[in-house]
Amino acid sequence: MPSSRIRRAWPAAATAVAAALALTGLAAPAQAQDPASDAPGTWIQQPRTSEGTPAPLGAGAWAGPGGAASSADFTLQPGEMNAETTRRVTRLASVLPDSGGVQKLLVGANRTVDPWCSRDPFGTAPDPDIKYCLQKDDSISQEWVPQGITGVSDAKDNELWGAAGNIQLFASYDGWDPGREDDPDPSAGDCTAAELEADDACNQKGVRITFVQSRTNPATGSPEIKYRHVLLGWTYVNSADHVSFDGLHAGEYPIQKGVHAGGIVWYGNYLYVADTRNGLRVFDMRHILDLDPDGDPSTHDEIGTDTDGVRTTSNVEDKTKVGRHDNVWYSFGYRYVMPQVAAWKFKAPQSNPKGSYACVSTGAPKSSYISLDRSTGPDRLIMGEYCRPESGYPSTGRIASYPVAALEGRSADVTAEGWANYLPLTGGGAQGAAAYDGTLYVNESKGTDEPGNLWRYKWSDGRLVQDGPAVKTARGAEDLYIERGTGRLWSLSEHRPGSAKDCTATKDPADPDGTDYCQRVLYAHKLSALGG
């Protein structure tokens, strides 16, 4: 019988499952219709690292800022559901049309970057070498918060995807769910019709990836910078044995919480997305699905059939639903969906305290941000932690590197190799890091009231040591990405205008009183201008 909550049409067979889940603190999926009667296996998302008990640090268990950390603590093991996830994605791809690939998606990019617009998150900090401003609705969005960044310089040694170059990708998480996050009945989880009518942002939509390209318009010959959003998805099989998909969620809480996506790396065909407490999620550029193949949202295109043989249609105008509902496919209004194909989880139990920025010094780390180092052999994926030291938890955050090609196998554990260290930041707060030619660059967040710091470190006898003073950078500086051909170090700022009252603090003398430095842009510094 349909529920009064949107998309919570539980079959009677699932009632016992729901009761069993209640004992574990889990709830039924909030984002897609009719979870399977054999739940929770089909809809609980991967990776899911086992939880340990937080324990304050014992004496002598940590090496201090910059010291060596245990590589073994970073060991990743393949997700238990990787084979099943592959089968589901293959099945979903047999129903939904293919996008035609990254190049075709970019050719049809529907949004425009304004380079060097007036948005200024730098204030008293030096201006970057280049700055991209998104369209206004993205720049001020309370719902979508940008975090991770990567690009084609990570993806390919020649920095071209086919014939396409000058491509950046960034990830945003859904950080605002009005009506849902303060639901008086949190066990219900979803949005009511009234809440959705007030604002479709009520839904927890998970993570989206934005493809950006600077290019010459073939029709006009003029330079342009275009971009397009793509929703990330998790496939599952519902109670009618139909394949479907949901947005990304880090855990099936009474009201599901989204993946933060604090770092992303595009390497070859694969996109790796940081899942903070769990490890990595993996996506495939060969599996980007198109829910509006004729390019006209109003036509509600005819789509393929699943194993039931029923012809389905799509609807990208309705932003309130996701997955298959009554033989209609929805995607929160996004044309393109990129389903997760695999996962890597931490082998050690996750004992970092929940609801705190404190970090343990041993055991499973946090996957707060990731990046790629192509300047060494083999190419290495870098993973680091965002931490704030507290009493009993002195860790400033750990960081380590993996041979990234080993992550393509998914058949055996992968251990960090090359180096593993505690960050030298005495107060923690690392939002992103990238290594190039023996230098580690680290973005330190300083909140909304002052510019961030961009630090440089080098290795000396196995320790990370500071290499010159910090370079002031944007407020809300996030993940880092090295673009080798241009010699640029890319990042992005997360704060939207009006994020906090202190966004006007630490004013540049040349700016009017009341200038709001909480502004959301993509930007890059020249490596040659950073010293060291």
Molecular structure report:
- By secondary structure, the protein is mainly beta.
- It is built from 6 helices and 30 strands.
- The strands form 5 sheets. Strands 1, 2, 5, 6, 7, 8, 9, 10, 11, 12, 13 and 18 form a 12-stranded mixed β-sheet that branches. A 5-stranded antiparallel β-sheet has the order 3-4-30-29-28.
- It is globular.
- Mean pLDDT is 89; it is low at 1-32 and 34-40.
Strand proportion = 25-35%
What is the radius of gyration computed over CA atoms, rounded to a whole number of angstroms?
23 Å
pLDDT < 50 stretches: 1-32, 34-40
The average pLDDT value, as a whole number, equals 89
**Major sheet:** 12 strands, mixed
By DSSP (H or I, 4+ residues per run), the number of helices equals 6
Give the termini distance in whole angstroms: 66 Å
Query: Helix amount, in percent?
Result: under 10%
Keywords: Signal
Region (Disordered): 32-74
Organism: Streptomyces virginiae (Streptomyces cinnamonensis)
Protein name: Secreted protein
